[in-house]
Design brief:
By secondary structure, the chain is of the alpha+beta class. Helices cover 31% and strands 20% of the residues. Strands 1-7-5-4 form a four-stranded antiparallel sheet. Strands 2-6 form a two-stranded antiparallel ribbon. The chain has a two-stranded antiparallel sheet with strand order 3-8. A hairpin with a 4-residue loop joins strand 4 and strand 5.
Amino acid sequence: MCAHGPILATEAALFCVPLNWLHTTLFTIGIPAGDLDIETRTRLIETLRQCLAEQDAFPLPAVPALATASPVVLDCFPDERWLRLRAAAADAVTAVLGENGAGFAVDDRPHITLACGVGTADAGAVQSRLRLAIGARVELLLDQLCLVEVA
């Protein structure tokens, strides 16, 4: 990601996502955290911990950054390990919150948003510069899962 930073920082029309916020999303939880009582939240966290304890860290391949109409993203290529991880986490959420607990589209491709559009820019020009930043593919290590609330 660091190779893209200097290129993205030169674009006033982009807001660069801080390095410590870079992530890919397994799925969304359909109930806001504020609507869960402390007992349910605690049970959800413990169920996720138990369910995911057997999962090992694994590489997640990604292509170079893509400048789209609004965000700049790294598209990732999930394999069976990603799909098993997402299914296990979704099962844990469903066990605690019910059938509508975990929401995701079956064909969602994981991605990491590097920057968001906050103005007008030529995505083609940005893309041309990004292509020169790194090689054809990168391997990212998926070694941590976090349960976060986005307001």
